[in-house]
Amino acid sequence: MPRPLSAFPALVLLLGALVALPVAAQERETLGWGRLLTNDAIGDGKDRWRTGSYVLSVLRGPSWAGSLPSQPGAILEFRAEVETIAPADLVTANPLDRRYVGALTLGVHTHFDMRGVETSLGLDAVIVGPQTGISSLHGDLHDVLGLPQPTVFGAQIGNDVFPTLTAELGRSLDLGGAAEFRPFLEAQAGVETMLRVGGDLTLGGMGRNGLLLRDGTTGQRYTGMAGSGPQGVSVVLGGDIAEVYDSEYFLPGDAITPSDSRKRLRTGVHWQGERGEAFYGVTWLGREFEEQVDDQVVGSINLRLKF
Fold first, then answer.
1. What pLDDT digit, counting tens, does each position of 101-117 carry?
2. Which domain holds residue 299?
3. Position 30 in a domain
4. What's residue 6's pLDDT?
5. What's the rounded Cα separation, in Å, for the pair 10 and 8?
6. Which CATH number fits the domain that encloses residue 147?
7. Which of 28, 97, 145, 224 has the largest count of CB atoms under 10 Å?
8. Is residue 2 situated within a structural domain?
């Protein structure tokens, strides 16, 4: 597939300039961190396709006053993610199934308020192929657990690095009481190029006066900076649909046809206590290629404790 990277030099320079602009004389400190583990073992348990990911975010800036700053680059999120994408059968290759992908993502994102619109802009390097060591680790795990050794690693997506730009625009709407709805628009260009629109409904205090970050695989939002919301239980509901223009996770000569749209539905329960919080969510992922025999459900968990 052609890589839509012709505009990337200008976009990279733009992001670099935005990051370099703010408060050069002020010291940054760690304001918060977030993480989310996603796996189909805690979803439908079928170990296939978008089978697992782990994302870790560290947020740095001069301060956090309970709302987004107007200056891009004032709040920086340094993000690292490991993701495994696999065919349904790791032992017997199926030409009508997708290739194995081991992806390591490293990047920086900035979050700011653009005239009342909650804005996120990020640049990532998505590193794929055996060079990441993900498939080797996967094979070692099968050895330890006494599972059959996968044979699909040799046909995995090869070594490469894809610069990827992601932008999200959203707005939180207070529905009264403890309810909040946040519609959003997201655009991504790079390893996968798509335009996505969706929304998230929160019933409870999750994320109030804090900063929630979005997981790329599921769309679930996880805590980056804890707010001052009330303790207790929150329920989240969300969904989105994307128009997909290109994906480096599919090769042109393969016998499968990538879908030109993707759908996601998600829900979760968040508990906030005096000394910690916990989250569990499930996400329904629609089919990503025409020959995919079924959709799938993955689970996501996050546990934060204060000692």
1. 999 999 999 999 999 99
2. 8-305
3. yes
4. 42
5. 5
6. 2.40.128.140
7. 224
8. no
CB of 123 closer than 8 Å to CB of 72:
no
CB atoms within 10 A of CB 29: 11
Assign 186 a pLDDT band (cuts: 50, 70, 90).
very high
Q: Is residue 121 part of a domain?
A: yes
Helix (H) or strand (E) holding 10: helix 8-20
Query: Residue 233: which of 181, 272, 200, 176 has the closest Cα?
Result: 272
DSSP structure string for 193-254: EEEEEEEEEEESSTTTTSEEEE-TTT--EEEEE---PPSEEEEEEEEEEEEEEEETTS-TTS
Tell me how far apart the alpha carbons of residues 47 and 50 are, in angstroms, rounded to a whole number: 8
**What pTM did the predictor assign?**
0.90
DSSP 126-144: EEESGGGSHHHHHHHHHHH
Q: How many domains does one find in the chain?
A: 1
Which residue shows structure tokens 């990503």? 288
Which range has highest mean pLDDT (1-5, 47-51, 53-57)?
A: 53-57
Q: Which residue has the tokens 């997506």?
A: 157
